[in-house]
Amino acid sequence: MADYGSLPFQEQITFFRDKVNLPTAAWTDIWEGMHARAFVVSGAMKEDLLTDLRGAVDQAITQGTTLAEFRKQFDQIVATHGWPYNGGRGWRTRVIYDTNLRQSYNAGRYHQVQQVKRTRPYVRYRHNDSVDHPRPEHVAWDGIILPIDDPWVSTHWPQNGWGCHCYMESLSERDLKRVGKSGPDTAPPIEWEEQTVGTRGPTPRTVRVPKGIDPGFAYNPGQAAWGRQLSQEAMDTWRAQGRDAWEQLTSGRPATYDRPAVIPFDKPQANVGKHYHDQEEVVVALRKQLEGDEKVYNVGGLPVLINAEALGSHIDIKRSEFLPLLEEALTDPFEVWATFERHKGSGRYVLRMRVIKAVELPGRSDKGLTLVANASRGVLEALTFIPMSRVKEIQKRRLGMLIYGRQN
């Protein structure tokens, strides 16, 4: 078993470097397999702060930086950005360092195992006895041998909790005979438990997890990054909760979540009607609205950063009169959706959010507007105002996971 923080391999490095930076207020802002796509540090809301933290983690993975060295870099980054992080320094640095190194290692190992499964079709769960407080369930799973594609592997591939040091070994038919087995074991039955996490933060979640696995770890990071997104059992659980993040990605069908086909009109809180002549005027107006160059909004429990210059340069001048409706669209949306989409150029996955709201326009031929705001990597990149007369099917604008939905 390679020591974490040393002997990096390409699959591990690729897994980590393919992630996108995502500002988050709490670790529950995104869930399970979404962590395989996004680099997050709870409470790190600024892109430059995330970039520096990511650089320190990248160095730990690729160059074998020790925890002590990482802590020195962490102190410098915190001092540079004035970041008032929560929790003690020792605990916080260990969580960032350990979780990123182990999950990137485990995801990379899964990819390697998949490449050789024709000749080595089994995996053996191994408990690392070096941990100070071993979990009884993890000790009980030690030595279990299963086919690599067994559903149990989808939810029990390490890490299986904070500080978990368990790992998987790849085995061949000959290896099974060496340990006295003629075939793989039967997967242990999964006993599901309901737990509520994140109660001290802005995004608490009540979730079902297998007994012995910490909430947020009941997924295979390698599958989420390279293979099928989640096990069918996990997807069924998410679907029952109405928060299935991967419905469209895995089936190609839209996820309706029993949402109404017609969006109700909201009365606008801001005055509209002022037209702007060029993008520079739009940027100036946005700076006034944001009371500065940029501002972070809480949208459906996830942070979204608005940069006046970046957004202003992309807004259609013909629709700039509706710019004052931006803030109410974000602070009082009708629906907020999130999904991962593959970037056409790089081929990498990008986390995208879509905000949907309808606003009435009394006395106008348009009668009403559908406001659609798109955010990528936690930054608002586009805002579209579509006359209701042109919105033929709102369902086409519902993409991915419903993370917020108003009742009426």
**Mind telling me the C-alpha Rg?**
24 Å
Element-level helix/strand string: HEEHHHEHEHEHEEHHHHEEHHEEEEE
The helix-and-strand class reads: alpha+beta
Helical stretch tally: 13
* Unreliable stretches covering 5 or more consecutive residues: 1-6, 227-253
Instruction: Specify the biggest β-sheet.
Output: 5 strands, antiparallel
Description:
This protein has 2 domains: 10-241, no CATH class; 279-405, no CATH class. It is α+β, with helices and mostly antiparallel strands and 408 residues long. It has helices at 10-17, 47-63, 67-81, 89-115, 136-141, 151-156, 173-178, 221-226, 232-241, 247-251, 279-290, 308-312, 326-331; strands at 20-21, 38-39, 122-126, 145-147, 167-171, 192-197, 205-210, 294-299, 302-307, 335-342, 349-360, 368-376, 379-387, 401-405. Helix 1 (10-17) crosses helix 4 (89-115), helix 2 packs antiparallel against helix 3 (67-81) and helix 3 (67-81) packs across helix 4 (89-115). 32% of the residues lie in helices and 21% in strands. The longest helix has 27 residues, at 89-115.
Give a nutshell description of this structure:
It contains 13 helices and 14 strands. It has helices at 10-17, 47-63, 67-81, 89-115, 136-141, 151-156, 173-178, 221-226, 232-241, 247-251, 279-290, 308-312, 326-331, and strands spanning 20-21, 38-39, 122-126, 145-147, 167-171, 192-197, 205-210, 294-299, 302-307, 335-342, 349-360, 368-376, 379-387, 401-405.
